[in-house]
Write a structure and sequence with these properties.
Blueprint: E1 5-8, H1 12-20, E2 28-31, E3 60-63, H2 65-73, E4 86-88, E5 90-94, E6 101-105, E7 115-119, H3 120-131, E8 137-140, E9 145-150, E10 155-159, E11 164-167, E12 169-172, H4 179-183, E13 188-204, E14 211-217, E15 220-227, E16 231-239, H5 240-247, H6 251-261, E17 269-271, E18 276-285, E19 289-290, E20 293-295, E21 301-302, H7 310-326, H8 337-364, H9 372-385, H10 387-400
Parallel strand pairs: 1-2, 1-12, 2-8, 5-14, 12-20
Antiparallel strand pairs: 3-7, 4-7, 5-6, 9-10, 10-11, 13-16, 13-17, 13-18, 14-15, 15-16, 18-21, 19-20
Helix pairs in contact: 1-3, 1-7, 7-8
Length: 406
């Protein structure tokens, strides 16, 4: 054997998975398609009034306290530059009638925060730094897989260029269009929402007070997430045609459109990063594991971003799979199918419930049938009035991500 485990995918979840396997005693090979930076340099430390267009990363993630604890265990979280990290202490969710809302408060839940907003670029660099010099890790980059062949006691992964790697287990952390998943012939069902998430960052006139805002509108779901200083990150999940229109607007026009859509909640906005747009879809896999294969992150599930749960689900995959492999007891073969089924059983229910909730919300708030608008706004008001329900939602959020409105 060249190694025990091959992790395919060098994104956030793949890097975290390789790092989480360090205490397991398993030899790990990480296949990463990205080239290493020639001279890794620290991100500039930003003053609160920083407005540089190139200073902020437009792609940010809401990391739950539970997953922040996981990243701390992996030696990743302490290395972040916390002058670039904002905490979410309060969340306000509004219906499309201008009056219905639900409010989540970390203070009422007896916690310091509901989530942390972290730039994707900074999180990626912190994970890469934690992996540098990890014992038992062979990091191949840039490298692309070409073929995967199964034997009774191993898999043989061939790379472009001809090199072959023998391992007991392959972990697919290679995204929504997973190559590993296709090679393992794991069935998948997909549904396009015919929407895109438009993301950009803005400086705001009024302080956000570490509050995340979300509006359910006829044209989609608009969220403003707090960044350090008077800055916010926009995530506007909207129809493809509307997203294309927004992405083509100039800075002042886009800022004005967002101001109008959020009813001036944060005063005048000024764009500080150009908008990007990402297609939205629902991906359900028939199985999370196959003989000598396990899937994590977007390779295992893709959901609508309205609850901020995507990467949090992936990090929970990492935690559970690493735990199963670390505590495998007398099972010497880390690719044993019945061992991998423990991971699948541990994750299947949580993933299915989150897919059901986010897909249901996406359909409910995009429906234009007469009476549906009244029903969803009434649901917001009712949930806001029932304290035990709000407490349960916050408790779930502290583990996985931002609260999900029922």
């Amino acid at each position: 054997m060249d190694c025990d485990v091959v992790v395919v995918g060098g994104g956030l979840v793949g890097l975290a998975q390789a790092r989480a396997l360090a205490p397991s005693g398993l030899a790990v090979t990480l296949i990463d398609s990205a080239s290493p930076p020639p001279e890794p340099s620290p991100l500039p430390s930003l003053a609160p009034e920083e407005e540089s267009v190139g200073g902020w990363d437009a792609r940010v993630y809401a990391i739950s306290p539970g997953n922040a604890a996981l990243l701390s265990e992996l030696g990743v979280w302490p290395s972040l530059d916390f002058s670039r990290v904002a905490s979410v202490e309060r969340m306000e969710v509004y219906g499309d009638d201008g009056a219905s809302r639900i409010v989540f408060s970390a203070y009422e839940a007896g916690r310091a925060e509901l989530a942390f907003i972290v730039e994707g670029r900074q999180l990626q660099r912190a994970l890469e730094s934690a992996l540098a010099g990890q014992a038992g890790l062979d990091w191949r980059r840039p490298a692309l897989p070409a073929d995967l062949v199964w034997a009774s006691d191993r898999v043989v992964l061939s790379l472009e260029g001809g090199e072959a790697i023998e391992a007991r287990l392959v972990i697919g952390a290679d995204g929504a269009d997973s190559w590993v998943r296709r090679q393992a012939d794991i069935g998948v069902s997909e549904k396009s929402y015919r929407q895109r998430a438009v993301v950009a960052n803005f400086r705001c006139e009024r302080p956000h007070r570490n509050t995340a805002f979300q509006w359910f509108r006829d044209d989609g779901v608009l969220a403003l997430l707090p960044l350090p200083g008077n800055h916010v990150s926009l995530v506007w999940s909207t129809w493809d045609e509307h997203a294309a229109e927004l992405a083509c607007l100039g800075p002042e026009a886009l800022a004005g459109r967002v101001e109008q859509a959020c009813r001036g909640a944060l005063g005048q906005l000024a764009q500080v990063t150009p908008p990007l747009a990402f297609p939205l879809r629902l991906v359900k896999v028939k199985a999370l594991v196959a003989p000598r294969v396990a899937l994590v992150g977007d390779a295992a599930h893709v959901i609508h971003p309205l609850a901020g749960q995507g990467v949090n689900l992936g990090f929970q995959d990492v935690r559970l799979l690493a735990g199963v492999l670390r505590e495998r007891g007398p099972v010497a073969d880390c690719g044993d199918y019945f061992l991998l089924r423990r991971y699948e059983r541990a994750r299947r229910e949580d993933v299915a419930l989150m897919q059901l909730a986010t897909d249901g919300l996406a359909r409910l708030f995009s429906a234009r049938t007469c009476g549906v608008g009244w029903l969803r706004n009434a649901g917001l008001r009712l949930t806001n009035a029932i304290a035990p329900v709000k407490t349960l939602l916050v408790q779930h959020a502290l583990k996985d991500g931002c609260p999900t409105v029922p």
